[in-house]
Specification:
alpha/beta, two-stranded antiparallel sheet, about 280 residues, nine-stranded mixed sheet
Length: about 280
């Protein structure tokens, strides 16, 4: 993207980094917030904008608890994904039975930073100018702030690798590509169990019914990781298999799908167009 402007004013986006622990092999990507920024830049280019049309700020909401952007200074707030239990696995070398483990990176946790984040999202929801975008953990936090139940999907377990999401009528309208199915990278075992009141349902899978939420002019979320690349997901799968989080069967099946064509760029483009009311 070149640095010229196509908009009269740049879109000001605050990216709230909901994890600050990235695997060593992926350190070149710096942080989840930085990965998300790359997605938005690519989405802006796909939407016909330039780099100069975005003004992105990165916020560490974990180490700087309660420090959030002034809503007067932004047009959109983006909540990133999180590695949830993975950093705990690496640091504590815990055993392989992890389904009941709760950590500070769970979207349903009551730690100071997650509680402060939910309160901030409620503040954004209480006004009508600044828009919300959430992916994976961020999707779940927004659901929680809207009163939905969020928790571990104990009965169906992990949803991983490139996964086809069956789009609803509203989902087909939102993504605008004549698609019945959206292919998106997944890496989660926590879910939003039910749609909050007043949101449009974007899609579902057999493992997770709430794959995306949309309120025109207000918010859009996806459970998947449009910001992930094949390289990022491959490394996460390898490490989680190595640590015993994933057995051989789930790992091999996930690796067989990791290189499939996926729609992350389309999702990033639609995020940008959502901010522009397109």
């Amino acid at each position: 993207m070149n640095s010229t402007h196509k908009l009269s004013h740049p879109i000001r986006i605050a990216i709230l980094g909901c994890d600050n622990n990235i695997p060593k092999a992926l350190e070149k990507y710096k942080s989840y917030a930085a990965i998300s920024s790359t997605l938005l830049e690519a989405g802006a280019e796909a939407a016909g904008l330039t780099k100069g049309d975005l003004e992105v700020s990165l916020w560490d909401v974990i180490d700087q608890v309660g420090k959030f952007p002034d809503l007067e200074d932004v047009d959109g707030v983006f909540l990133t994904g999180s590695m949830d239990i993975f950093d705990t696995i690496l640091s504590l070398n815990i055993p392989t039975n992890l389904s009941s483990l709760n950590t500070e990176h769970d979207s349903f946790a009551s730690t100071p930073w997650t509680t402060a984040l939910v309160t901030f999202v409620e503040k954004v929801l209480a006004q009508h100018r600044v828009k919300l975008i959430g992916v994976c953990f961020g999707h779940q936090i927004i659901g929680r702030a809207m009163g939905a139940k969020v928790g571990r999907n104990v009965s169906k377990g992990w949803e991983v690798s490139v996964t086809d999401v069956d789009l609803t009528t509203e989902g087909k309208e939102f993504f605008k590509e004549g698609k019945d199915v959206l292919s998106i990278l997944q890496m989660h075992q926590d879910i939003v169990f039910d749609y909050p009141t007043g949101v449009q349902h974007l899609g579902s899978t057999s493992r997770c019914q709430v794959q995306g939420m949309f309120v025109p002019g207000r918010l859009v979320t996806v459970q998947g990781h449009p910001e992930f690349t094949e390289e990022i997901l491959t490394e996460i799968l390898r490490l989680r298999h190595e640590q015993g989080v994933f057995g051989d069967e789930i790992y091999q099946e996930a690796m067989a799908r990791v290189g499939k064509k996926q729609d992350g760029l389309l999702v990033g483009q639609r995020f940008i167009e959502f901010l522009l009311d397109r």
